[in-house]
Write the structure tokens for this entry.
Amino acid sequence: MASTPTLEFEKPISELEKQIDELKKLAGDQRIRVEDEIAPLEKKLSALRQEVYRNLTPLQRLLVARSPRRPFTLDYIRLCFTDFIELAGDRLFREDAAIVGGWARLEGETVMVIGHQRGRDTKENLRRNFGMPHPEGYRKALRLMKLAEKFHVPVFTLIDTPGAWAGLGAEERGQAAAIARNLFEMSQLQVPLVATVIGEGGSGGALALGVADRVLMMENAVYSVITAEGCAAILWKDGKSIEMRERAASALKITAPELHDLKVIDEIIPEPVGGAHTNHEASAAALQEALIRNLEDLRKLKPDKLVRRRREKYLKMGQWAE
Amino acid sequence: MAWFRKEKKPRAPRTERLEIPPDVWEKCEACGHTDIREKFIRSFNVCPACDFHRRIRAVEYARLLFDENSWTETETDIRSVDPLQFPDYAARVKKARGVADYDAILTAHGTMAEMPVGIGIMDFAFMGGSMGSVVGEKISRLAQRSLEKKHPLIVISASGGARMQEGVLSLMQMAKVSAVLSQLAERRIPYVSILTNPTTGGVSASFAMLGDAILAEPGAVIGFAGPRVIKQTLGQDLPEGFQTAEFLLDHGMVDAVVHRRDLKATVGRLLRHMSGKPAVAGWTTA
């Protein structure tokens, strides 16, 4: 994994981690026993992680969600599924690596998995456009969903994007129309659909993979109609200062518990103490358990009932007075 | 350098101007053409000289499309609340309600060229036509009424996108309206989407781009990201005419760019085709 800058509030954690690593290295070199020294330090580390992560502000959560150290879609595909075969291209214009998808198996059964894919280093990020799809990415996703529907196979989507790409080509090729078409088709897809926000769920670009029978969210993931930066820039003419970003992140209600209260998501998947990045395997195990359990419920429903329930769920969304 | 300066001559008082009430004249924002207000109004608020389509209010579109005295506003009691307790939101809604009491969309049913229809008309004057829960719910109810009665649905969009003060709830309105439109499609009930200036963000990325026919007013800015955002991301100026209705027509994203004076006839003819009704005399060659 490429070395990445530590988040400000994680500094005490990473310092302690460094201390422990050094001690272990020393012990290895000198062949001395340090278990007695390390044990209390590790206990302290665990307590510290718990303490820091229990008190994360919405902006800190957003930064955790964006962290390149978190598991990405392909990591979860590798850890939760088997027999993955990636399918490329929208058959219309080109391949968009900001979204990946293909056949895979969950507990041996064939499923379709589709998700945004970010990059860990500059080279990969350029290839994957930082996980910001062009219209062809969404059209590829839809193609795979229709393929799954054709063979009566459930669809899992993993959401992890700052948003749909805003650029000349994206506009020329109908970014808005591509997203709209996905929302429309996903609301009537005849197979079970489970969406999980694994990192940042950025607006329409996230929702275009997010209309589902069940919407799950990793504990430290966020989901928002606009970035905290964008919101602060529009409302308070300051999208840069920590204070204004914090204000926007908190006002927008982007964290999993807040969205669960608003009935926008159905379930929160717990992450290891200290965030998903501290243990990819444990995070994937928690996600896998949730996917299996949710699919089991949905498999019991006939397609028409499934679609009716999905539509009814979305028709109830929102709050108003009369 | 004082000797370079032009001698200022006292201007002759223009007494003749006082005889005409100043509010009789209107000036086109686009070309500067000045004309009698009556003329602007008679041409549907389109500049008689340059065809610039001025932004008009929802009620004016209702008068333009519905047959005279045929329409009734629906869902008049539904109001925005402040689900997130978002800073200043309640006050902004209160202020906007002074501009329009129907939130950012007016919904109505009535007849259009003697065909019963439901029409939703977004109003940019209400918080930039932003889509919150109320907009989503009103379109959804209008569409459900269309489902029950088998009446075609028309939505005129004018919006900067989702209403961020309602957070993800406003994002979910995109999914909600798309879900109800898929029901309409399943039952073969025609839906015509009309895009006016501007149609961007969450509105363009949902119902605005899902019409069985998509029409756009000349010159309207239409896109996913607003031009300002794209300019910022790319750090370069955008090509002339980028994201205009005509640009979208060239790129295959809309069916036609239609002058406001032809809007009613065009929508009427489209709906008659899509509902298997015969042509109306005088409309076949608009």
Summary: Strands of chain A lie at 82-86, 99-106, 109-116, 155-161, 193-202, 214-218, 222-224, 267-269, 320-321. Chain A touches chain B through 51 residues (CB under 8 Å). The longest strand of chain A covers residues 193-202. The CA atoms of residues 146 and 210 of chain A lie 15 Å apart.
